[in-house]
Amino acid sequence: MVPIRKVQDDTKTLIKTIVTRINDISHTQSVSSKQRVTGLDFIPGLHPLLSLSKMDQTLAIYQQILASLPSRNVIQISNDLENLRDLLHLLAASKSCPLPQVRALESLESLGVVLEASLYSTEVVALSRLQGSLQDMLRQLDLSPGC
Amino acid sequence: MICQKFCVALLHWEFIYVTTAFNLAYPITPWKFKLSCMPSNTTYDFLFPPGISKNTSNLNGRYEAVVETKLNSSGNYLSNLSSRITFHCCFWSEEDKNCSVYADDIEGKAFVTTVNSLVFQQTGAHWNIQCWMKEDLKLFICYIESLFKNPFKNYDLTVHLLYVLLDLLEESPLLPEKGSFQIVQCNCSFNECCECHVPVPTAKLNNTLLMYLKITSGGVIFHSPPMSAQPINVVKPDPPLGLHMEITDTGSLKISWSSPTLVPFQLQYQVKYSENSTKNMKKADEIVTATSLLVDSVLPGSSYDVQVRSKRLDGLGIWSDWSTLLTFTTQDVIYFPPKILTAAGSNISFHCIYKNEKKIVSSKKIVWWLNLAEKIPQSQYDVVDDHISKVTFPNLNATKPRGKFTYDAVYCCNEQECHHRYAELYVIDVNINISCETDGYLTKMTCRWSPSAIQSLAGSNLQLRYHRSSLYCSDVPSIHPVSEPKDCHLQRDGFYECIFQPIFLLSGYTMWIRINHTLGSLDSPPVCVIPDSVVKPLPPSSVKAEITVKIGLLKISWEKPVFPENNLQFQIRYGLSGKQVQWKMFEVYDAKLKSASLPVPDLCAVYTVQVRCKRLDGLGYWSNWSTPAHTVVVDVKVPIRGPEFWRIISEDTTKKERNVTLLWKPLMKNDSLCSVRRYVVKHHTSHNGTWLEDVGNHTKLTFLWTEQAHSVMVLAINSIGASSANFNLTLSRSISKVNIVQSLSAYPLNSSCVILSWMLSPSDYNLMYFILEWKILNEDSEIKWLRIPSSVKKYYVHDHFIPIEKYQFSLYPIFTEGVGKPKIINSFTQDDEKHQHDADLYVIVPIIISSSILLLGTLSVLHQRMKKLFWEDVPNPKNCSWAQGLNFQKRTDIL
After folding, report:
1. Nearest CB to B502: which of A17, A76, A87?
2. B310 and B294, same structural domain?
3. Which residue of A has its CA nearest to B562?
4. How close does chain B come to A2, measured CA to CA in Å?
5. What sequence ranges are listed for the domain Fibronectin type-III (chain B) (predicted)?
6. A26 vs chain B: nearest CA distance in angstroms?
């Protein structure tokens, strides 16, 4: 049985690790935060107040998106997201929160079409928004998020 | 009448087929059936079955009869009935010897009658036929074999098979039209055997295959009645392969086999075996659904013959041919199992049945030996039954190879007699250590393991298998039933290396080594590794080292690596640069620190510094050391002191002026911290006050001493400032007459060391230190000097002293008030006196001895007193190497 304290620490460390990984992907660093990219509404935005289930759902979407991206370095991030979701499940279990199984999202059905036309935009925006979401989650985890 | 009825039926073949109901086709049986044809004028009893209807559709389920053949001697169709010989053909089999004959009534409607096949066997042409679907479910085969007594037998036999695959919807009483039939020519061999191949699409395996044969033999064409089959119902598998027999661990005979291909339905197997032993001859025949069969109570010295065939388990099907006969002979001594491969630490057992001269030995008489060298204790035996003995080896140690033998030979013996056959015991130490390391980018985990412990087992191959759990490891790792193999590559150092990339940082990878061998497989104890806990970080970057100015500490700074995000501890090693750095270590446990300052003994030396890091919680490995950083020597502080200096005075008696030349030794790095840009002489006289004189890098300065007293001080200047502590020398005419050094003695110890000792008289002046000057006497040689602390009364002067030269030693007392009067000795004066005295003694003693014993006694007393005086000042021999081990109480040794 892993102490819940360790799970919490590992969750935060893993989030920081993913954030740093995204930072290390060179082409994501040059994206201007001032410019809004349209047509990619299926990529989750920022939600400062997140519950554990919402976090899990958000990460599941990102996992689906990353799995569709051809870049080699996003495979590792996708694996990290899987670990992170497992950690969130452990945290939820420690609070007796039921985390429903996340279903494949219908909105992502059009992902293939978008990827074909706008692969670069999708990757850059997805990683950028994922980074923001992770930082939100990191803050939220310090505040002991609800179910 | 009957003949007339058949003559009426002599219509064209195709016409007959159109009018014959489809369900009258002969259903192909799983066994062989026969086709018999005979001329129509043959007389036989023609029995109409009771209640037979002229409507052929009432004959459902009965095989149909045939019909006619036509003489093809001219190659033309003969419509004239009188010119034709008509053959009636029908199918029958050993199982059903009724031969149904098709005929036509007067009205042209078909009907069927049944005759006994014996009628046909008496005369006519006959063929054995067997049809089946091959196991690959792609080819339908009909095998036609001409019977020996066939009067039409000759070498121009040709057979054609005409067939049509009816669609499922078409399976109605209506027959297909003539043009629907496809024709294949059958391959016939010299021995009157033909094989017809009909390709069947997979999708039509359940359809009805309707066909008939057209056999041309001896110039006669025979048309068989139609026959039908559903291909899926007449599948004939290939014979089982890989028939194998072995004695199981429990002493049974295991017969096993395998099916050659995968069929889409389950098979049943018929096993036919016989046991031929001295006891009895036993035959058995069993049907099983598994691909093995256990035969109990195998006996030593017996032989077993086995054959197997297979058939579809459910539904219709045809037995395959029998497999090739396999014979298995058991030895007079049976070990089961005959060989065991096991892991060290495990417990195993061997069983044995021993047959000696046609008689099975009682299990109570059996003893066990190991390697024919060591009798196994009886406490390890068990009697299983009257004939089976068992030996158990508990907690086995790994087998030590003896030459090329990598196993232990276990012998089952009949008291004192051992059969040459033995069981083989292979015990392998499977404790293979698997160590893993995650790279500094947290994307790759490399695991290494060495197979050296199990290399002795020839024919084995090793494989790393793993199972990944979603998060963390269980407390006790175990081998999971679901595992994956991992490719590992042999490295030059003999280790295998397996790379996981990408990784799941927090998943538990349970790994073990599977040792596969023909005797079985063994697994090493599993280990569970979480990649996050075996991280070897990248070394810290931007490592810089400097000696801090004014503070004088070695400051090391660094940047932590990007990964891992955990808190890190750091180790610093530093040392003086050189070929072999003597490292000193310093540890930093504060993860936030990015620099450390350390005291070092030499601030003006070049230090080499490296830093490495590891997780603060102790998990993982130390990183490699960073690339070395080196300090640069710069001035870190003002010089600790000014240089030691002395003066040489040259006096011009005519002018009553004295030229003073100050001499000093360049300041070393340890004192200058770390360089001297220039020297400055600070003068002070009562008349002129204080003034500075810049000497630059020179170490000598001459000035005129005109006043009664003249004080000088030499300052060393570096980039930071002037030396803080400096020597002061006052030249005073009055003090130069103060004499406090009563005596000065010099004793040479060797050519590089002279001891000076002196005695002082009390003085009111404030003695700061001494200056000792020495030079070769009577030569204009360089004056050498050194500063001696005021507290010292004895001093070792190290120089290159030439034994034949005489030296002048001058000891100057330096007071705060000025330089006192020196004590000067010329060479080693006291020693010279002794030499002279000894010389005198050699002259005087003979005179004295010859003149007066009294005088001798007087001289003896005098001599003793001198000796005592001498030894008080004798130096400590430990300070001069040449003097060690000498007895200084013997005067002659000194001299």
Report:
1. A76
2. yes
3. A20
4. 8
5. 239-333, 539-634, 740-833
6. 15
Q: Which helix (H) or strand (E) holds A121?
A: helix A119-142
Range of the domain at B434: 430-533
Q: Report ipTM (2 d.p.).
A: 0.92
Contacts of B533 in chain A (CB under 8 A): none
Decide which of B533, B560, B594 is a domain's last residue. B533
Query: Which residues make Cβ contacts (< 8 Å) with residue B508, sequence separation at least 6?
Result: B468, B469, B471, B472, B473, B474, B528, B529, B530
Q: Are B321 and B342 members of one domain?
A: no
Averaged pLDDT for residues B385-404: 90
Residues B28 and B148 in one domain: yes
Q: What is the pLDDT of residues B560-615, one digit of tens each?
A: 999 999 999 999 999 999 989 999 999 999 999 999 999 999 999 999 999 999 99
Is 50 exceeded by the pLDDT of residue B60?
no
Number of domains, chain B: 7
Would you tell me how many other CB atoms lie within 10 Å of the CB of residue B435? 14
Is the distance from CB of B884 to CB of B877 less than 8 angstroms? yes
pLDDT of amino acid B867: 57
> Does residue B589 belong to the interface with chain A, where contact is any CB pair within 8 Å?
no
* Residue ranges of B 408-467 with Cβ closer than 8 A to chain A: 442-443
Q: Which percentage of chain B shows pLDDT scores above 90?
A: 51
The full DSSP string for A63-93 is: HHHHHH---THHHHHHHHHHHHHHHHHHHHH
Query: Starting at the edge strand that comes first in sequence, how are the strands of the sheet with B807-815 ordered?
Result: B784-789, B767-776, B807-815, B823-826
Cross-chain residue pair A83–B562, CB shorter than 8 Å: no
**Residue B450 neighbours by CB under 8 Å, 6+ apart:** B432, B433, B494, B495, B496
Structure tokens at B59: 């004959």
Q: Which of A14, A75, A76 sits opposite B506 (nearest CB)?
A: A14
- Min CA distance, A13 vs chain B (Å)? 6
pLDDT tens-digit map of B166-199: 876 555 555 666 678 899 999 988 777 899 999 9
The whole-angstrom separation of Cα B272 and Cα B790 is 120
B506: nearest CB among A10, A16, A75: A10
* CA–CA min distance A81, chain B (Å): 9
pLDDT at B521 over 50: yes
Chain B nearest-CA distance from A127, in A, is: 18
From first CA to last CA, the distance across chain A in angstroms is: 22
A-chain residue closest to B502, CA distance: A76
- pLDDT tens per residue across span B62-83: 333 333 333 333 222 323 333 4
Contact (CB<8Å) A83/B504: yes
- Residue by residue, pLDDT tens for chain A (147 residues) are 789 999 999 999 999 999 999 988 866 666 676 777 776 777 887 776 678 988 998 999 899 889 888 888 899 999 999 999 999 999 999 999 887 766 655 556 667 777 777 788 888 888 988 998 999 999 999 888 888
Put simply, the answer to whether B507 touches A83 (Cβ < 8 Å) is yes
How many inter-chain contacts (A to B, CB under 8 Å) are there?
44
User: Which of chain A's residues have a Cβ under 8 Å away from the Cβ of B472?
Assistant: 2
Q: Which two tokens stand for residue B522?
A: 């063994």
pLDDT at B849 over 60: no
Token readout for B780 is 């204009």
Which of B443, B469, B473 to probe the A interface (max A CBs under 10 A)? B443
Burial label, B397 (beta-carbon count in 10 A; 0-12, 13-18, 19+): exposed
Average of per-residue pLDDT across B228-234: 88
